[in-house]
């Protein structure tokens, strides 16, 4: 919508209005798309045309103006013409109107009003006075006002029309500029304020915001980065976000899963080989380090590499050199390495399974990706994101999740993290078929069951309560997961009565409050996560 007030305050429109007013005694009226004439109703409005001033000082005069505006809109609504000269309310008087168009959209009208034409006869002019008097205006006032209506001829007439067209253009141009600026401000606002995403990463939880903040700081550096997180938490996505926000963004991003190869194959995959290096090496082959020269290499599951491979990786990270399999001369490359693992490398070092020097060489900057169960607020955002994406890809109208379905999804602990959630949403879109609303009965049984099993306190349910807990990985993580689960379910069961739950769990109320804060499980956070 046009900001008419801002337009009226513009230096150019003010000057143009002045010319039209002073030279031709016409008022420039701005009319919005609803047919509302701006400003003239406001007290203290300074009329240029004595006739319009007199007209608008009577309530019936407003109806005359309304009738003229209606006529203009009827014309523009049925014609593609940009301008229209109309017979005004009193036969023999005229108005000139011009459309305001922005990006092919009809945004309003500028009207210059009222005037006579050189064809208007003395009789017509006298008739106007008569009619005005008949409407209730005094004879003398009517005569004076009508005598001030300009009679146009020749070049003045053409100039007046040109000026009105210029005012209308000016309004359009200014509105266009303002809209562009507003869009930019909105962009900037969302960039600064709501960091709900970074590159392609989605998530609004505090933990993800911290990750985005760290990424924005480290992407520009050349440091090696270690990303730690469970499977499916988005480690590869983070590596890509780092690459595409770094000065290397125009060079190659390559990803290798170190656990997908045995030692020999990984050697050749990473460093390449020369012809005849081993049976089947029928020609020279570049390794990914060479292909990614100038770019970024993502080494996933680095914790699964053998001790001899770890030595080679240390060399390339320290010196930038490597030896292709079967080669006699080392090669040099400039590759930024981003490594990832879901293993606890510190424990591996203690057991002698991972080189400490390599660990410190890779772990210059550590990005820890939290599992999805620790950032519940991200679940609804990710659900909506994947739902919209899948529906769009499948050319289906957008579906919605029922409240109960969302609750069940929030109850699940997502051991497979975002990947599991993405797969579930994609599955739901298929299962829902034509149904617009996705209901809990469509959910995978493990999600329905995990919600139910969490509903029981351990003491009532024997061993089954462990169903929703990831029993792989470290004991510390599993215990923490269990703690979160028990507190979250307990809070619901006890209607957020912390004293009652603390008693049930056998811990102090203060201890429970600290844990609720630590895991972000308070009522408001849970409601927020559920989008309530
Ligand atoms: N924050 C996120 N926003 C949007 N999609 C995400 C996010 N995190 C993960 N995904 C999606 O989840 C899937 C798994 O992500 P990704 O492969 O990056 O995880 P990963 O931690 O590298 O997994 P793995 O350890 O199993 O290799 C991908 O399809 C990715 O698109």
Automatic annotation (TrEMBL):
UniProt KW keywords: ATP-binding, DNA-binding, Nucleotide-binding, Transcription, Transcription regulation
Domain of life: Bacteria
UniProt GO BP: regulation of DNA-templated transcription
InterPro entries per record: AAA+_ATPase (IPR003593), AAA_lid_NorR (IPR058031), Homeodomain-like_sf (IPR009057), HTH_Fis (IPR002197), P-loop_NTPase (IPR027417), Sigma_54_int (IPR002078), Sigma_54_int_dom_ATP-bd_2 (IPR025943), Sigma_54_int_dom_CS (IPR025944)
Molecular function in Gene Ontology: ATP binding; sequence-specific DNA binding
UniProt-listed CDD domains: AAA
Sigma-54 factor interaction domain boundaries: 201-430
Cross-referenced PANTHER family: TRANSCRIPTIONAL REGULATORY PROTEIN
Protein name, per record: Sigma 54-interacting transcriptional regulator
Organism per entry: Peredibacter starrii
């Amino acid at each position: 919508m046009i900001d008419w007030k801002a337009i009226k305050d513009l230096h150019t429109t003010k000057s143009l209005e002045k010319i039209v007013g002073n030279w031709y005694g016409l008022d420039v009226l701005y009319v919005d798309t609803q047919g509302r004439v701006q400003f003239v109703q406001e007290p203290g409005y300074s009329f240029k045309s004595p006739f319009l001033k007199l007209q608008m000082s009577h309530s019936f005069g407003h109806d005359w103006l309304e009738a003229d505006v209606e006529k203009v809109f009827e014309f523009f609504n049925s014609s593609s013409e940009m301008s229209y000269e109309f017979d005004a309310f009193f036969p023999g008087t005229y108005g000139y109107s011009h459309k305001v168009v922005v990006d092919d959209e009809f945004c309003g009208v500028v009207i210059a009003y009222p005037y006579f034409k050189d064809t208007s006869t003395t009789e017509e002019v006298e008739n106007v006075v008569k009619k005005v008097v008949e409407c209730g205006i005094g004879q003398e006032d009517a005569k004076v006002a009508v005598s001030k209506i300009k009679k146009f001829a020749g070049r003045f007439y053409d100039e007046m029309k040109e000026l009105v067209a210029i005012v209308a253009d000016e309004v359009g141009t200014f509105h266009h500029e303002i809209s562009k600026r507003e869009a930019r401000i909105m962009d900037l606002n969302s960039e600064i304020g709501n960091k709900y995403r970074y590159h392609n990463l989605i998530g609004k939880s505090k933990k993800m915001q911290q990750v985005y903040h760290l990424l924005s700081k480290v992407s520009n550096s050349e440091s090696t980065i270690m990303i730690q997180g469970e499977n499916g938490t988005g480690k590869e996505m983070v590596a890509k976000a780092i690459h595409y926000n770094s000065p290397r963004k125009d060079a190659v991003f390559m990803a290798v899963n170190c656990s997908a190869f045995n030692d020999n194959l990984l050697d050749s995959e990473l460093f390449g080989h020369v012809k005849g290096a081993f049976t089947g090496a029928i020609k020279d082959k570049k390794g990914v380090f060479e292909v990614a020269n100038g770019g970024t290499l993502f080494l996933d599951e680095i914790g699964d590499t053998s001790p001899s491979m770890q030595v080679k990786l240390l060399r390339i990270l320290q010196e930038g050199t490597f030896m292709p399999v079967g080669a006699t001369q080392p090669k040099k490359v400039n590759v930024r390495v981003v490594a990832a693992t879901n293993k606890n490398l510190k424990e591996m070092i203690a057991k002698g399974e991972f080189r400490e020097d390599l660990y410190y060489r890779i772990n210059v900057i550590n990005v820890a990706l939290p599992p999805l169960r620790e950032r519940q607020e991200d679940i609804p955002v990710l659900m909506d994101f994947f739902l919209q994406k899948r529906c769009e890809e499948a050319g289906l109208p957008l579906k919605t999740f029922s409240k109960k379905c969302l609750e069940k999804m929030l109850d699940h602990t997502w051991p497979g993290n975002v990947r599991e959630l993405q797969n579930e949403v994609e599955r739901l879109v298929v299962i829902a078929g034509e149904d617009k609303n996705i209901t809990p009965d469509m959910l995978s049984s493990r999600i329905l069951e995990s919600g139910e099993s969490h509903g029981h306190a351990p003491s009532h349910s024997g061993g089954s309560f462990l169903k929703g807990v990831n029993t792989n990985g470290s004991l510390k993580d599993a215990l923490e997961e269990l703690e979160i689960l028990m507190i979250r379910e307990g809070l619901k069961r006890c209607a957020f009565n912390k004293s009652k739950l603390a008693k049930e769990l056998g811990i102090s109320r203060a201890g429970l409050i600290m844990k609720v804060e630590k895991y972000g499980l308070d009522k408001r956070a849970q409601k927020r996560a559920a989008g309530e």
